Amino acid sequence: MTLKFPSAAEAAGRTLGDEEVAAAERVIRSGMLNAVWGTEAKALEREMAELCGARHAVACSSGTAALHLAVVAAAPDPGDEIITTPLTDFGTVAPILSQNAVPVFADVDPLSGNLDPAAVRAAITPRTRAIMAVHLFGAPAALDELRAIADEHGLMLIEDCAQAWLGELPDGRPVGGVGEVGCFSLQQWKHITCGDGGLVVTDDDALARAMRLFSDKGWDRAGGRHHLSFGLNYRMTELQAAVARVQLARLPGVVAARRRWALRLLRELAGLPGLVLPDPRGHAWWYFPIVLPGGGATELAAKLAADGIPAQAGYLAEPLNRAPLWDGPMYGTSRFPLSAPPAACPEADRLVGETLLIVDLNENYTADHVAAIADGFRRYVQISGIDPS
C-alpha cells in the first residue's frame, strides 16, 4: 500500500481542531461577525504585533490584500515602478498594477530563487519607488543587501512573508521587520490558515494609519462618516480572525515540526550527486526546494510523483515576467501603466524550466514520510548524477 502524504487541502495536513471550532462558534453565537464592531480582529492584530515585535499590525481579507496595503503605503504615482521577483504568486504583482504602478522584474539567485541584489540595483530608475522582496518557499531573502540598496536610493522595502511565517535572517532577526512593511498570508496552503486572510506589520505610525484607512474605504471610524482618502473594503471578518487567533498560537509548533522534518530530510539526502540542497538557516520550510544545476528537474519530479511522492518541477508554469497577461490590455483596452514588455530574467527561466524541484513539506509528516521521500531520490539519483532514463 502506497504511503499517503498529509496535504494542506485536507484535515490530515492541517492543525485545525476543536479550538478553532469553538472560536468560530463563539463568534457566531455573539451575533457580531463584522470586525468593525467586533473584538476578534482587534485581538488578532495585537497578538500579531506582539509576535513580530512590531508597533502595528493590520488585519485584512487576504495575503494579496496585505500586499496591496503595502503598495499603498509606498505611495507610487501612476507609472512609478516597484521592483520585485518573477518567482512568486501573482498576488505579489497584482497590487502593483492595481495602484497603476509598473512591476519591474529583477532576476534571482540561481540556487535560492530569491531576488539577486545586484539585479535589483541594476533595475533601479528615477521612477523606482519600492523593492518588494519575497521570501521564496520560506527561505529568507538577502534583506541586509536589499535594505542597503533601498536606503541608498530612498526606496521603501516591502517584505512578502506569505511563505515564511517565523522565518529568520541568519543572525536570528525575524523576517517582516527589516522592511518598512511585512506582509503575511493566512490562505489555505500557508503554515497557518483561516481559509483566506492577511496581516501587515510595521513600526511606522503614518504607514499603519494609511494602510488601515485604505482597508476600510478611507473611513476613520473614530471621526464620524468622513472618507478621508481613497480606499477599498479589505476588512477581515470576525470568523476569520477568531480562527486565525487559534492558528497563530499553534504557529511555533507548526514551524518547529516542519524544521525538524526538513533537517532530517537534509541529512538523508546529503551526499547524493547532482543535487543542491537548501540552506536551512532561518528557513520556514513552506516547501522543500532542491536545485539540479545540470538540469533534469522535470524528469526527476515526474518519476517521484509517479511513486506517490508530492514533488513537482518549476513551481510556476512560467516566471511571471513571461506570463501571457503582458500581451494584453490592463484596463479596458488600455495597456497603461505598461510601456514595454518585462525584462528577461534568465536565471528565473532556468529554475522554472530545468533546475528547480520542490517537495511538499508538512508539519504532520512522520519519519516514514521523510524516509519515503529520501528513498525515492535514492532510486533515481545515480552515482553519476541524475539518470532521466
Automatic annotation (TrEMBL):
Gene3D superfamilies noted in UniProt: Aspartate Aminotransferase, domain 1 (3.90.1150.10), Type I PLP-dependent aspartate aminotransferase-like (Major domain) (3.40.640.10)
Alphabetically ordered keywords of this record: Pyridoxal phosphate
Annotated GO MF terms: pyridoxal phosphate binding; transaminase activity
Pfam families assigned: DegT_DnrJ_EryC1
Gene Ontology terms: biological process: polysaccharide biosynthetic process
Active site positions, chain numbering: K190
InterPro entries tied to this protein: DegT/StrS_aminotransferase, PyrdxlP-dep_Trfase, PyrdxlP-dep_Trfase_major, PyrdxlP-dep_Trfase_small
The keyword Metal-binding appears for this protein: no
Modification N6-(pyridoxal phosphate)lysine occurs at: K190
Signal peptide: none
Cofactor field: pyridoxal 5'-phosphate
Family, per entry: Belongs to the DegT/DnrJ/EryC1 family.
PANTHER family: DTDP-4-AMINO-4,6-DIDEOXYGALACTOSE TRANSAMINASE, TRANSAMINASE
Protein name: dTDP-4-amino-4,6-dideoxygalactose transaminase
